[in-house]
Automatic annotation (TrEMBL):
The keyword Signal applies. Keywords: Lipoprotein, Signal. This is Putative lipoprotein. PROSITE patterns: PROKAR_LIPOPROTEIN. It comes from Phytopseudomonas punonensis. Residues 1-23 form the signal peptide.
Length: 223
């Protein structure tokens, strides 16, 4: 039986944005989950999330994720706080000092350094993928992708997206003498150098050369 596939084609435009903020407003049941970015800390064994540009802080409940273990490992390397991009259900809590609680359902990104609340491009970023040895990165918006790699200047390219079964995604581009294929799969992925945790594994094939890394959605995509 043929597989139904969805294709999207994009061109390049500039990127500008800021982090999401939880407003506390009532939302319909189908939109009950909220995505927040902010500073993740730990006090007396309890994880706390202070959203970007928001004075409140929320007690973090790990749900069916591994955020407690992941945060413990990253904070144990000498960092006092992490940047976290999380999705979950907001609610009340009896935890002292909390403005509410977040029951986490997905960890998009958990990292000790790199893009954080000060990222001006977050809202318009569809996804970021990167890897080590060799160092490479792909930044994708709804308007195009920017490829950076070893011994090359950043290159802006149009691309086509193919949505595959089991949540997998394939992005391809063939322009300016370059053949680019980016394959993404929804699974926990740990950066080999920084230890940052992301929710997708990534494979970049550039002109036939295979490179591996991790990826996560930006603010322009929430699935």
């Amino acid at each position: 039986m043929p597989i139904s596939r969805k294709f999207l084609v994009f061109t390049l435009l500039p990127l500008f944005a800021s982090c999401a903020v939880y407003t506390g407003k009532t939302v319909p049941p189908e939109k009950a989950e909220t995505r927040l970015q902010g500073e993740l800390t730990r006090e007396n064994g309890q994880l706390w999330l202070k959203p970007c540009q928001d004075p409140r802080r929320f007690a973090v409940m790990e749900g069916n994720t591994t955020i407690t273990q992941d945060a413990s490992e990253l904070l144990g390397t000498g960092h006092s706080a992490l940047f976290a991009d999380l999705r979950g259900a907001m609610g009340s809590t009896q935890v002292s000092g909390a403005d509410g609680a977040m029951q986490v359902s997905r960890v998009y990104r958990l990292q000790p350094e790199g893009h954080g609340c000060d990222d001006p491009n977050f809202k318009r970023t569809v996804l970021r993928a990167s890897g080590q040895e060799p160092l490479w990165s792909v930044n994708v918006s709804n308007k195009g992708m920017v490829l950076s790699g070893p011994d090359r200047e950043p290159l802006a390219l149009p691309y086509m997206e193919e949505q595959l079964p089991e949540g997998r995604i394939n992005l391809t581009s063939e322009a300016n003498g370059e053949r680019v294929e980016l394959w993404l799969a929804p699974q926990r992925c740990v950066d080999s150098m920084s230890g940052a945790v992301q929710h997708m594994s990534a494979q970049l094939r550039l002109n036939g050369k295979l490179m591996r890394g991790c990826a996560s959605f930006g603010g322009a995509r929430n699935d």
